[in-house]
Amino acid sequence: MDNAINVNSEIGKLKTVLLHRPGEEVENITPDTMDRLLFDDIPYLEIAQKEHDFFAQTLRDTGTEVLYIEQLIAETLDTSKLVREGFTRRYLEEHGYSRGKTFEGLAEYLNSFTTKDFIEKIYAGVQKKEIEIPHEVLSDMAGSDAEKLFYLDPLPNAYFTRDPQASMGIGMTVNRMTFAARQPESLLTEYVLNHHPRFAGKVPVWRNRNHQTRIEGGDELILSKNVVAIGVSERTSSKSIQQLALELFKNPLSTFDTVLAVEIPHNHAMMHLDTVFTMINRDQFTVFPGIFHGDGSINTFILTPGKQADEIKIEHLTDLEAALKRVLNLTELDLIECGGGDSIIAPREQWNDGSNTLAIAPGEIVTYDRNYITIELLKKHGVKVHEILSSELARGRGGARCMSQPLWREDL
Ligand SMILES: NC(=[NH2+])NCCC[C@H](N)C(=O)O
């Protein structure tokens, strides 16, 4: 099999990355829907796009091929009429429409667009005022229904391409995401993997999205060719981690034999492991001190294959540093604290993703410019930093790692 994905670390030289340029979907957030759509504010789109283009250019300038998911899904839907029809049906079904006038009206409406406009619609959402479906719809009449403005909600979180799936070795997990606001995003990934000529038949899926238990890419960190770290978080459950570990251990195409589960606080500021912990170099990490209990402890679990097939051995540790040294075979470790651990600066910079760095090579990262205290500190520790613009993008609560899905990294 020709591989389409190759991600055996968080830090190997980045060769190909998947992004999504924020679009109209971001302007379809209102104060009333913000919470449900997982935003804390409404970004100014024009500036957000400029910042995003700057991010993409930074990656290109350092030798990375930048792909856009919106382009890939367009190419996917153009492979055949059947694929596009199948996608439309699934998309509507997953939004609770199956047969009947609303289903038909929406399908017909979506069908009237060119592929490019169709994709923009999928991201932006379909407002009720856009089409007239001539029959009585309860949610139109029940004035207090939160769904009353849209037939299909916008996908404003789509520029956080890290989360709907995770590259892991030569394969991926295609994620069953936690909140309804994001669940449609991984259907796009599934379609690209199944039908895009660059990927179809070339990517083993370690775990697909047809599950009841949740997992998101912001929690899935590839520490080495054989170790993944996964956050037990607001977005990823311990059950999913155990199921995934089992699959990784027994699938002959997987090289992973160790999963390090790290339990972090369950809240919006720290929704994923990568908002509080990222890898920078073989022995360097950023970490937000707020994840530790008062005595410096944190629940970590090392999962390895058990004696019998389908059995997993779980070891409980409360020292993150010790756990990392163990699974990575290191004697020294440099944990760099967000905001220098200061009780005001650390949470402020963490809120704006100071701990969320994207390594583009060992010891070389991309991160938001606004977290200048953390940046100074990283430089003092010898890290090469590429700063990107962050006024508007940061309002979605995600930084450079969240906004990027590596597809290919050079092996270390
Ligand atoms: N990998 C990440 N940390 N992604 C950040 C995602 C932020 C997004 N607003 C959400 O709540 O889902």
TrEMBL record:
It holds the Pfam family ADI. Pathway: Amino-acid degradation; L-arginine degradation via ADI pathway; carbamoyl phosphate from L-arginine: step 1/2. GO terms for molecular function: arginine deiminase activity. Coiled coil: none annotated. It comes from the Bacteria. Its EC number is 3.5.3.6. GO terms for biological process: L-arginine deiminase pathway. It catalyses: L-arginine + H2O = L-citrulline + NH4(+). The active site is at C402. SUPFAM superfamilies: Pentein. It is found in: Cytoplasm. Keywords: Arginine metabolism, Cytoplasm, Hydrolase. The keyword Cell membrane does not apply. One of its GO terms (cellular component) is cytoplasm. HAMAP family: Arg_deiminase. Belongs to the arginine deiminase family. NCBIfam families: arcA, PRK01388.1. This is Arginine deiminase. It comes from Lactovum miscens.
